[in-house]
Amino acid sequence: MTSTFEPRMLIDGALVEAEGGATYDNVNPATEEVIGPVADAGVNDMQRAIRAARRAFDETDWATDRAFRKACLVQLREALEKHKEELRPQIVAEVGAPIALTYAIQQDTCIEDMQWDIDMIDRYEWERELGVHEFFGLRSNRLVVREPIGVAGLITPWNFPFMLNLSKLTPALAAGCTVVLKPAPDTPYSATWIGRLVAQETDIPPGVVNVVTSADPAAVGEELTGSPLVDMISFTGSTAVGKRIAERGAATLKRVFLELGGKSANIVLDDADFSAVLPGTGMVCMHSGQGCAITTRLLLPRSRYDEGVEIVRQAFEQFPYGDPTDFANMAGPLVNAKQRERVLGYIEKGKAEGARCLVGGGPATQFERGYFVQPTLFVDVDPDSTIAQEEIFGPVLAVIPYEDDDDAVRIANNSRYGLSGSVSSGSLDRALAVARRIRTGTVSVNGGQWYGPDSPFGGYKESGLGREHGVQGFEEYLETKTIGLPAS
Ligand code: NAD
Question: Can you tell me the mean pLDDT for 415-431?
Fold first, then answer.
């Protein structure tokens, strides 16, 4: 291990450049400086990776030798743990993520959480007998066998790149699949670093793990999603691209597992302790709001609206952001100039549609460089307006007043998304009753955290198909075979 980042891809067991040596620049969004080059794959490189993964699945015993798989995954977890201090600055540099977050969900906890999926290899019931059944006068026993689905294409976004790479790689490999990982163009090193450790510090056979980086996701990504050699796509990203992937997958009827966008509601009921609950709403701006499950709509009761808005205003004014290498900051910049322009466009739209901008509302001009946007608080937001309906993916909160619990539930569910949410009340029963009426894949009640390696995570409606993590997440990578045997 010499250089501090890995510019090469992993294809068929070798760390390689793209065909013709093409590269593109990986840029630090806080400084706008080039961190280094990375391989810029073309369609031919992707085809080579797909063929390698197919061959490794069909011709090695990776899919069937569970003890070997487990030993290899333990090697990978240990290598990641050993080298995590080399990876940490890379994540901060390429994502613009606050360093404090890398000690939690942006890096360290995901390495620890790998063990849960590794343990599934021994814990999972791979086969079970159904017992005797009579059919056409024949008595038969039935054996239900779970097998890896085959070659899995893993496509990940830039907001929590390392965590999402591992959230897909670990269960896919533990299940016995072989994989082609295609990270987002903005965050290649969080994937190539894993490829390097796979190649140099594990016995994972050539072709089992392939990592393909490209500046042009459309051409290379569509090669992966359309290939008849690929059995499933596991995707995290925007709803628009998710729909395109489902469309591409339809041609070969491959399984498509989608974790998509969100516009989650934080419902604060009128009997909640506002002084305990509302100061935390500034955390909507954590990582500059670049999280799919962040509660970006705050629903406050009309009867205590002004009191609530005042607490939120203070939380937004005091929110610490800036240089992501500074431990005091909870947010850095947006990931690139395009995202910053997109977020600023939504802020202008919010103003134009009549919402009141109480804090922020523009680029953070105190920084000479970097794609920073001010934490921005909109109040009196119409629940049907653009900033209440569309995912902004920036440090922007829309506060919406409601009349009673039924009205709060109606507004929360007035969304094409259904990813997450939260409910707070002085009464746990009342909060839970409201939570049960929210049509989302996860909900926090009175501050309870739903996240865990064993917690299924995913969305209702246009927030996705399927679940990541937990037994359900593991089973996304499995097929089911029923074998009939003569009854003895
Ligand atoms: P994106 O959809 O633009 O890109 C995601 C990935 O898809 C990237 O690797 C990209 O290169 C690739 N891609 C783009 N076009 C493709 C195509 N035609 N074929 C194949 N691959 C293609 O998303 P993003 O902007 O990188 O990430 C932000 C989005 O991700 C937000 O909408 C956010 O809500 C969502 N997200 C969801 C979750 C979740 O678990 N639900 C988690 C994180 C982020």
Answer: 98
